[in-house]
Specification:
Elements lengths: L52 H4 L14 E5 L24 E5 L12 H6 L4 H24 L30 E3 L7 E3 H14 L9 E2 L2 H13 L9 E2 L3 E3 L1
Parallel strand pairs: 3-4
Antiparallel strand pairs: 1-2, 5-7, 6-7
Amino acid sequence: MTIPSAGFPGATSGSTPAIYPDGSSGNSLQSTGFIPEIWSGKLVEKFYASTVLAAISNTDYEGEIKNKGDRVKIRTKPTVTIRDYKSDGLLGLDRPTGGNIELYIGNGKYFSLILDDVMEVQSDLNVLSMWSDDAAQQLKIVVDQDVLGGIVGGMASNNKGTAAGVITGNINLGVKGTPLSVVGRNPGSGDVELLDVLMRLGQVLDEQNIPVSGWWTGSPSTSATCCRTTARTRPTSPLASGRSSPGTHTR
């Protein structure tokens, strides 16, 4: 059945069924405005791309940032030296000195909207609110893409490449341009099972003493499907007790 785009189609002398009575002309109620158009007060649902940045970002210093151009200096703990003790021996003394890292706010995004007062009064919708809601969603998507795209390749040298691992130095994570060939199950020659990749990533983080509670990975929905399938087929998998979603996986 063809969905009409302009009201009911009218019968003619050559249509089935034909116009009745035979030889008469069709009505013009719609074309002359006697059948009104109705504008719904509800909007069609709009779907947005999933974002993950808010779920994986550190917001500990958010309250100290007020404006673009701010610099927040974050102090770091010193590393205390541990020595072997010997009785009657002279004890060495240290004056631990911590450093600091600097968080600089140098990027910003914006949107700008305009609505005439007359149009705002005459509209039956809260147009500015609707636009602002959409802008907020678009802003999340753009910031996600900008930040995640900007950190590619920025990790420590021991956390990437074909010789990752600050202790072992032999964990293959692939390199940009020639990534690992990752499959969900039953890897062939040259393939790596997704679960194996996640375990490699976990080992790299373990060797850097990163707390397990802070681990996360960002991946497409296809990887999430592979994770769920692997967890079902391998009950001892750490993913079986983990949490996964189309955008992020955490353990």
